[in-house]
Amino acid sequence: MRRRPDRRSEPSVRRLYVRFQAAQPYRHGRFPGVVGLVEGLSSEGRLTVEQERFRRSGNDWFGDHLVNPYEVDRRVYDRERHPGAAAWFKSTALPMIDRVSGYLDILDAHGIAWERLDSDSPGSSCTRIRNRSWHCPR
Predict the structure, then answer these.
(1) Do the Cβ atoms of 15 and 97 come closer than 8 Å?
(2) Nearest CA to 126 among 137, 116, 134?
(3) Distance (Å, rounded) from C-alpha 133 to C-alpha 17?
(4) Do 15 and 118 touch, CB atoms closer than 8 A?
(5) What is the pLDDT along the chain (138 residues), one digit of tens a residue?
(6) Is 115:20 a contact under the CB 8 Å cutoff?
């Protein structure tokens, strides 16, 4: 498990994009993002009342500050068209990146390993919306 992100956890050389995801692949060989991992814990009823409260308010915050990709292009996560598509934040989107720390705290509490990825080229761009970008592996 990794510790919560903050300005000190940034790589010594800033990359263009950052992603937080499962440290190990899940079924079908995919690495779900940390918000998806917390959603899974919630759907299984494994979150405490406080963790569930954070999940709901965190999801609301992201909903208020980010565009839902399905409102722009419903095909962005189509497994046939874009296998392995994943959401990445622009490294300059610090308010979004900082907000991820609460999700990481929940994963740490449940013993779920996660990792931070930093890249200038995470794959070909499927869609870009404000501070997020969806990339498909090359």
Answers:
(1) no
(2) 134
(3) 8
(4) yes
(5) 554 455 335 555 678 889 999 999 988 888 999 999 999 999 999 999 999 999 999 999 998 888 777 677 778 778 788 777 788 888 888 999 999 999 999 999 999 999 999 998 887 665 555 555 555 554
(6) yes
CB count in 10 Å sphere of residue 3:
12
Q: Which two tokens stand for residue 69?
A: 């990709």
- Do the Cβ atoms of 87 and 132 come closer than 8 Å? yes
Identity of the amino acid at 106: I
Q: Which of 120, 93, 125, 128 has the alpha carbon at shortest distance from 17?
A: 120
Give the separation between CA 47 and CA 87, rounded to whole angstroms.
Answer: 24
- Angle, nearest 10°, between helix axes 34-43 and 49-65? 140
